[in-house]
Write a structure and sequence with these properties.
It contains three helices and 28 strands. The protein is mainly β and 360 residues long. Bound molecules: 2-acetamido-2-deoxy-beta-D-glucopyranose (2 copies).
């Protein structure tokens, strides 16, 4: 059962973040911004001028009172101690910002927008240090890689995933998920004829704490895991994580011995995956590259369809935990609040749901 954090918003919550001091921030439609204690009490509320949806919130990784917020085409910096108005505003993106990422030393901020561009801001000089322009459609997510200065990954609704070094204006490596999906489907020989696939528009991205592994969630319900080696990356694992689009993927943080990934989908489910374990199994029994693994124990309909697939060499990927949240997931994050490991979920309602994960 979820605990609900209500009374922080009156509109749909769109974005969540947690600070190094376990303070939670949430952004909602029409410019609503709320800061919460780890117990779920609203500490501060603010209505941003302009009334645009707060699409992403991110705390500084070094200063827990510094909060970055994207709303419309604007990026604002707030101080949670004096939470009345932004202390700074940047208008460097030409279209709505979908995702922001701050590098580990809080010196660079990347903002991905609807035009497909990613603006990289130098937070000290307050100037755009790079414009990364290659996505042909909405750039949905951007993430700096931990321990890899200057390196970031992006994905978009153009079905492309890109690795960048911000010193260069061109991507180092690009993977087209539509092409990957075609290869996967060629291998999935027992697919029922005429079955329609949603195109793998990429909605979400998360880099593991090690910096070399990252995951993408796409409209085809699949979660794909990539490994970066030098200036390129390769697909390592792909599995059907959700029966509709995967709106969110997030790696849990470092102290854990495994790479745990949480995902949320338009199917209203929240899942927990042990990515390390699956990658090890996959390497042992990998029948062919690009084979997309089936999630076991999906719906009974699916199980029937895949009866003869049980003889395949491919291992099945099953989630460690599946929560029937019941509402489309707008955002999710893992956090350790009041000594418990929890998942916070934002959905079309105005409250935040909190699920306890227990021991991992
Ligand atoms: C940022 O913009 C808001 C209005 O959106 C304004 O109230 C605030 O004073 C601005 N801050 C700075 C430092 O310009
Ligand atoms: C963050 O960016 C700055 C400026 O480019 C760089 O000097 C620093 O090494 C980066 N930090 C990390 C941890 O990537």
């Amino acid at each position: 059962m979820a605990a609900k954090w209500a009374c922080g918003h009156s509109n749909t919550v769109l974005s969540l973040a947690v600070s190094i001091d376990r303070v939670v921030a949430s952004g909602a439609e029409t410019g609503e911004l709320t800061v919460w204690s780890e117990e779920g009490c609203p500490l501060q509320k603010l209505q941003l001028d302009g009334g645009e949806d707060v699409t992403c919130v991110a705390f500084s990784p070094v200063c827990s009172t510094r909060l970055y917020v994207s709303h419309g085409e604007t990026l604002s910096v707030l101080d949670t101690r004096t939470f009345r108005e932004p202390v700074e505003n940047f208008s460097v993106n030409k279209e709505e910002i979908n995702c922001i990422s701050v590098n580990e030393t809080d010196s660079l901020l990347a903002a991905a927008d609807d035009s497909g561009a990613v603006k990289v801001l130098d937070l000290e000089s307050k100037k755009v240090s790079r414009t990364l322009q290659r996505h042909l459609n909405i750039c949905s997510a951007v993430a700096f890689r931990p321990h890899r200065p200057q390196s970031l990954v992006t994905c978009g609704l153009d079905m492309q995933v890109m690795l960048w070094n911000i010193q260069k204006a061109r991507p180092l490596w690009i993977t087209d998920l539509q092409q990957l999906a075609q290869e996967e489907n060629d291998v999935e020989d027992h697919q029922s004829p005429g079955q329609l696939f949603n195109p793998p528009l990429v909605h979400s991205l998360s880099v593991a704490p090690c910096g070399n592994i990252f995951c993408c969630g796409a409209e085809d319900g699949k979660i794909r895991v990539f490994q970066v080696t030098g200036t390129r990356f390769e697909d390592q694992l792909c599995f059907k994580g959700h029966i509709q689009g995967v709106s969110q993927v997030h790696f849990l943080d470092q102290e854990l011995s495994h790479s745990w990934l949480i995902s949320g989908g338009n199917d209203g489910r929240v899942c927990l995956w042990d990515i390390d374990r699956e990658m090890r199994q996959q390497q042992k029994q990998r029948p062919s590259k690009h084979h997309c693994l089936k999630k076991s124990g999906a719906t009974s309909f699916k199980t029937k369809l895949s009866v003869h697939q049980t003889t395949e060499a491919a291992p099945r990927v099953s989630s460690k935990l599946t929560i029937e949240h019941g509402e489309k997931v707008n955002w999710l994050i893992g956090a350790e609040l009041q000594g418990s490991r929890v998942i916070l979920v934002a959905d079309p309602t105005s409250s935040i749901s909190v699920y306890e994960l227990g021991e991992l």
